[in-house]
Amino acid sequence: MNDYSVFRRSRLQLALWYAGIMGLILSISGVGIYRAAIESSWLAMEREIESIAGTLHDSVEPLLPVGENPSRVLQQIFPDLCLRGELCEKTPTLIQRHTIGISDRNTYYIRLFDRHGKLLAFSPNQPRSLPNRFNPTPWQTFRTPRGIRYHQFTTILHSTPQSDPSARLNTHSSWGYLQIGRTLEGFDTQIRRIRWILGAGFPIALVLVGVSSWWLSGLAMQPIYQSYQQQRQFTANVAHELRSPLASLLATVEAILRLSPSNRNDLSVMLNTVERQGRRLSYLIADLLFLSSLDVNSASTSFQSCCLNDLASDLTEEFLELAIASDIVLTKQIPDDNLYILGDESQLYRLVSNLIANAIRYTPAGGKVEVVLRSRDRAALILVKDTGIGISLEEQRRIFDRFYRVGSDRSRETGGTGLGLAIAEGIARLHHGTIEVDSELGQGSTFAIRLPLASSIVSESKI
Ligand code: ADP
């Protein structure tokens, strides 16, 4: 197939289109999967921060004092936090206590601000470059100069109302703010890993898609290529078949033109040859036109009810004269009950007559040809049996091919073109039927046509 540039080009175009579309689908899916994976882990991380913040908030809020120096109280509540302005050498254990059950414990830090946004206390593991200035936005993401990203959540803390009425006057609904954050190092590593997998996987997938699309486009082109080859072979056969009679016809015409007046007696013989060759050409062209009409009309043929009993009887009678001339006994076996099928009568006549003509043609004098009609399994069976020369097993597979002739010379002698059985098979196929051959060399052949009976008429005939 790759020897023909038109097929190679079409295959390449098909493969490129296929690879392009697959590549586009893969890219869209890859981006979708990437975004979904990032989004879900981002949401899971935010939920985790929120849940830790909630736990801290609920456990801290009832203990918050009103109107006292918060440093003293904070030291009691958060013994592990560093107080602003004081030396801090503590280890981050408090946040660990509050995040029991959460796998990634060392990544969190907390900070406490008063209600004016002044930093009061912070975890010792908070990022150094974190500004002390308070930003009330609930969710914030920032990057340190070292390139590490942090994500933090800010929630309001309310102080507990006091029982002392004078103290209640000082009660402010907002005591301050709790800020809890975490490093995004793990998250960013995960993103990088996903990007790397997608980045490396995409070209590999693209190469695989390219190879498979080349292979698939080859598969898709195969039937087209085969049909093209058949068409080429057919055209070559047609040219060959037309050339021989034409050449012979031209040679005869030239001979006639050169004929001297003394040889006028040969003229009628030569004209007979011209007529025979012309007729042969005309039959060949008619057969070719009929074959192509069979290919085109596969669905549009309007069928009518046809009686196969009449068809078999008529054809047996028609060929009787030829059979007698060839010293062949032609008999028929037709049931009393009529068998009907839906079909094109003239085509059906052609189908059966092709088989009978062949049977007589390929049966030596003294032989027998029998036409049998019967019904079986809701189908009509037409058998054309002969006691002729038979066909070998290998040839049986090829005799339905266009222009195929067993021993072309012998067939040419009999006037065959090699299209008769191809036409017969085409007609049978058009009528949703089949045609099969059973033959033995030197013993004879049986051609069996099976055609579906017209269902509405089946009941009329006894099957
Ligand atoms: P042709 O026009 O040459 O007969 P067909 O397509 O009708 O072409 O037949 C193809 C070949 O099948 C013939 O060349 C012939 O050799 C073989 N063939 C067909 N029918 C018979 C038969 N009844 N007995 C033996 N050979 C047959």
Which keywords apply here?
single chain; 463 residues; alpha+beta; Beta-Lactamase; Helix Hairpins; Heat Shock Protein 90; 3 domains; 6-stranded antiparallel beta sheet; 5-stranded mixed beta sheet; 12 helices; 52% helix; disordered C terminus; binds adenosine-5'-diphosphate
Please write out the topology.
Elements: H1 5-60, H2 70-77, E1 82-83, H3 94-98, E2 108-114, E3 119-122, E4 139-143, E5 149-157, H4 165-170, E6 176-183, H5 185-258, H6 267-296, E7 304-307, H7 308-325, E8 329-333, E9 340-343, H8 345-361, E10 368-376, E11 379-386, H9 393-396, H10 408-413, H11 420-430, E12 434-440, E13 444-452, H12 455-458
Helix pairs in contact: 1-5, 5-6, 6-11, 7-8, 8-11
The chain binds adenosine-5'-diphosphate (ADP).
Adenosine-5'-diphosphate (ADP) binds next to helix 8 and helix 11.
Describe this structure in words.
The protein is α+β, with helices and mostly antiparallel strands. It folds into three domains: 2-192, Beta-Lactamase; 215-295, Helix Hairpins, CATH 1.10.287.130; 297-462, 2-Layer Sandwich (Heat Shock Protein 90). 52% of the residues lie in helices and 17% in strands. It has helices spanning 5-60, 70-77, 94-98, 165-170, 185-258, 267-296, 308-325, 345-361, 393-396, 408-413, 420-430, 455-458, and strands spanning 82-83, 108-114, 119-122, 139-143, 149-157, 176-183, 304-307, 329-333, 340-343, 368-376, 379-386, 434-440, 444-452. The strands form three sheets. Strands 1-3-2-6-5-4 form a six-stranded antiparallel sheet. Strands 8-10-11-13-12 form a five-stranded mixed sheet, with helices on one face. A hairpin with a 3-residue loop joins strand 12 and strand 13 (444-452). Helix 1 packs antiparallel against helix 5 (185-258) and helix 5 packs antiparallel against helix 6 (267-296). It is rod-shaped and about 145 Å long. The protein starts with a helix and ends in a 5-residue tail after the last helix. The relative contact order is 0.08. The model is unreliable at 99-104, 167-171 and 456-463 (pLDDT under 50). The protein binds adenosine-5'-diphosphate.
